[in-house]
Each structure stands twice: as C-alpha cells, then as structure tokens.
User: Which sequence fits this backbone?
C-alpha cells in the first residue's frame, strides 16, 4: 500500500481512490470512500466538517455518509465519542460520524494484515515474551521525546491521528485521543501492543496514566487519561496537525 503523502510518514494511509476495488471490502462509490478517508484521518466529525475538508456540498456529503451507514462502514453518534459535543442552533447537538472496524479495515487492510502476520510469526517462532519485547521497544521509540506534545507529534507521524482533548469532569487532566490505529487488528489479537504503549506513555511522562478505551476493544476511539493540564492553545495545535491537507488528495 502506498503512502498518502510520501513525506508525511503515514505508511498506513492510502491514496484516495486506491482501495475502491479492495478484494475484502468495497466502498459504496468513490465519493463515499473520500468521505471515509477524511474520517480515518480526523476521527469523529460532523457532515459540515467533512464537507468543508473535501470542499463539497453538505448535501453530497450526507448522501455519502448515508451510504456508508447502510454498508456498516460508519456509525453515527448523538454525542461525540470524545471531548465536548458540538452544538448547532439553540444548543441542539450535531450528529457526528466515525468509522466502524469494518470501515477502518477497508482503509487499512493490507498494512494491518502484514502487521498481524508478522506478530503471529514472532509468536510462533519465539513465544509471547518476544511479542511483548517487540511491543515494548516499539512503544519506547514512539515516546522517546519524553513530553506530551512530542508524543502526539510522533503518533501523528505513525498514522494515529492523535490529539489532546480536555478531560471530562476533570479540569486538571487531559485526554490523549488516537482517532485511528493502523494496526487495530493486530492489537486486537495481541493486546501487548496497547499495554506496552500505555506503559510507555506513563514512563515517558513520569506519572500514572489510565487507558480508558481502545479501538482494538471495539471502542470508537483510543483514549488515555493524562493527569496533566494542557492549554487550549496546545490542544488547538494538535487538532490542526491531524487535519487532512488538501494537497494529499490524489488519485491512484
């Protein structure tokens, strides 16, 4: 699978239009696939937010979202899976959409399958302890920067679409949100990947962190509670960092 941007460091993200004829799962049309790939990069979003990213009409975006809902590639939420719920007019909450495991599989099938096959080989040849050692080394590399913003930056380089969000009901903490996992199937079969990642977060930050949810367990997003307050300006920077760039939208 080719990278979405040869200089972006996102090996798990493919070109728009590349997987429309995937042998495992198929998108219901090219427009729907483009919508799905926006959700892949930015996580849960409203129809208006997706339409702004793709520079298409809200009506066309809703048609694609409805097609993705019918095929089970996307789920809708009255309340966003993370952070504050967006509102529209008179405090009425907007519906947000996020990819389901089936939708993520359509986007990442080849990369995730390779990761799973590799981990199964390590397990057969060297045992489960070798899988954990691999997971620990990988997590240590991703958290080598040592501070929270550096970790978010590295995670984004690995394709995790990470952001910092305010922690619900806790003004002294933040949530590290990973809106995408390029190895979600591998992590489902080998939980060591998530366990060592969480342990590495805590070790790098020098404090206890709590994993609240994971994509590997079927949750709509990976969230880790960090007992560290982050400014709204810093949170805004991480959100802008994960937003898809128009220049990446190329066809195969």
Assistant:
């Amino acid at each position: 699978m080719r990278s979405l941007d040869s200089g972006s460091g996102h090996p798990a993200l493919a070109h728009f239009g590349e997987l429309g004829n995937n042998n495992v799962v198929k998108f219901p049309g090219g427009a729907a696939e483009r919508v799905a790939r926006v959700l892949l990069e930015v996580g849960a979003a409203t129809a208006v937010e997706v339409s702004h990213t793709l520079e298409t009409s809200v009506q066309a975006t809703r048609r694609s979202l409805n097609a993705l809902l019918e095929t089970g590639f996307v789920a809708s939420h009255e309340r966003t899976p993370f952070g504050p719920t967006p509102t529209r007019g008179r405090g009425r909450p907007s519906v947000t959409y996020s990819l389901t495991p089936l939708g993520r599989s359509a986007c990442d099938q080849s990369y995730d399958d390779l990761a799973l096959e590799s981990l199964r080989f390590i397990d057969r040849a060297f045992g489960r302890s070798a899988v954990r050692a691999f997971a620990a080394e990988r997590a240590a590399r991703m958290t080598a920067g040592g501070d929270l913003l550096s970790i978010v930056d590295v995670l984004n380089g690995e394709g995790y679409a990470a952001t910092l969000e305010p922690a619900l009901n806790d003004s002294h903490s933040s949530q590290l949100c990973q809106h995408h996992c390029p190895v979600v199937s591998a992590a489902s079969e080998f939980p060591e990947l998530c366990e060592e990642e969480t342990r590495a977060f805590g070790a790098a930050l020098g404090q206890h962190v709590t994993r609240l949810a994971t994509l590997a367990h079927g949750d709509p997003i990976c969230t880790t509670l960090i007992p560290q307050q982050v400014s709204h300006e810093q949170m805004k920077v991480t959100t802008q960092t994960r937003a898809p760039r128009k220049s990446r939208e190329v066809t195969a």
Summary: DSSP finds nine helices and eight strands in the chain. Residues 1-24, 243-252 have pLDDT under 50 and may be disordered. The beta strands are 74-77, 87-88, 92-93, 96-99, 162-166, 174-178, 210-213, 222-226.
